[in-house]
């Protein structure tokens, strides 16, 4: 791309329809607009900054394209000003990644490995200095010395700094001209088509975009390693880091999904030994329960037999173990990322057997599912409102740097979305049914009786909420990611149909094809989607052990959907540098710590784990009589008035006062929370201490890079001579060094 311009396939078009401000130039960047809206001063100023310009008008009275390129002198000047990295010495790639070495030792074929041609060379680098040009590799080759992404970055910076009006009015930069409608688009060009040619071609002859499509963005590559070296070379470090993090997180989800599925299946296998559920199903009319509402009638405990059995899947000792496991998993995952910076029942038959009484007792359950679906729709709608509100609030704060602006915006959006997505699960888990009162003395709010959990308990309602919100959001997001770019591209092509017609059927040029693509919307929504998912699989995992499995399945699709968008459907974004995933890591750490506390309270106050444990210890190890133990008698005045002798779930005496068991259980619950929190956080501190923030191999690489930089940039080379032993140690270290990027590739 950066060599001589390829000969035109339609020379008469070049001659008749192209107006050049200078001689034909290489295409670093493209501005698109209508002739009447060109900002002449802006164009003059970017010319004064040294950029080469070429204006293309495919046909009369149609869209104009302004192609921009930075000559060598401009590239050198801005490379030093922007502290771009320049190559000092090539470093070898490791032959195998971690999983490949493990599989090789186990003599297991590695189906995830894939040979990707033209793997970029990795270099030791330092900040570019014009005065030390001769010290850098390849400096004599002016055409290819700066990478394509570096050239894009330099042109982007010039466009962002160029004044078109009054500086005191902030009339600066192409971005504002885009907002004002002076330009319709501004983007760097893709490197050719992504489709493979019809004829047979050697893999080494594919362009970089074709390589990414053929070896990464296709669905058939869902089980292959991501070619992160190629992604970084084509899209820059920021986008490569996102895909590295997403791949790393998805890989870590595999053990969590396996354990969670095992816990869920173990609940199915042990369902037949659930003594409380057996007592409920066999109780007949023995337990007459008080009405669930003012106009309802008493009902029998046996009516909720199916819900009692299903509820055991989400409330058995295995879920407690899984909560502890996921707490350790979350923090260990973040520590390792930082180091690199995842008896069965036929319910339909049972429902038929129980008849119309079940329909009455299941009304609350059906209402909960319906309300969860409506809640999901409102959550998605309010999410757009909260994002717009956060953007406006952040603009009012007038941050000095783009990084400060992005961090503040990200934090606000996450806080809004945290409340938006997690408020209803928090309500069901910790507030619903807590302030109901007791028969004859029910708590009210605005004259209405406070809401109670359904007959099956709050935990199964929480599981239903989590399933509908998490899975529904994932499905809707994936459909949107698949459909919306295609709809936008179709609308863009339809809008340009008249332009194509005016061209008389001529073959579109690269810049015209890229203009038909969708503008890249960045990584914010992608990060937000996965971070919210991380909250669902950690904060409420005690109630929904299958959450990691659904997250894993979603992320397998997410990687390919995002890859396809960036390679095939988005205009090429400007490559950005990044050292880590930014403020998102801080949010993930906060979520992992919140999850420990929330799961402790969930097990203590929402689950029946501790009441059953207390009953086993004090009364019966086989839980015989447990159901009767958890039920209280309504006060005589309430019973004899209209309903007879009815029961309700609570630890109260006949006068409605709390019994001694209630206070004993409260002490057990509080003690469990303290013990759970202290044990988990103590182990997490040990994990934090055991896993170094910077791995030894990366530390050696950094030291060697600094050493080479000093050698290259020092004016007095003699002053940098070191002992032979130090040089020998450095050479020895070099053979064992893996770069951070290589380690991410292994993940």
From TrEMBL:
Phosphoprotein in keyword set: no
GO cellular component terms, A-Z: plasma membrane
A single GO molecular function term of this UniProt record: protein dimerization activity
Domain annotation Anoctamin dimerisation: ranges: 36-228
Protein localization: Cell membrane; Membrane
Main location: membrane
Record field: transmembrane: 242-265, 319-337, 366-389, 409-430, 530-553, 581-605, 660-681
Membrane topology term: Multi-pass membrane protein
Keywords from the UniProt entry: Cell membrane, Glycoprotein, Membrane, Transmembrane, Transmembrane helix
Pfam families listed in its UniProt record: Anoct_dimer (PF16178), Anoctamin (PF04547)
Residues of the Anoctamin transmembrane domain: 231-339, 361-705
Protein family membership: Belongs to the anoctamin family.
PANTHER family: ANOCTAMIN (PTHR12308:SF15)
Name of the protein described by the UniProt record: Anoctamin
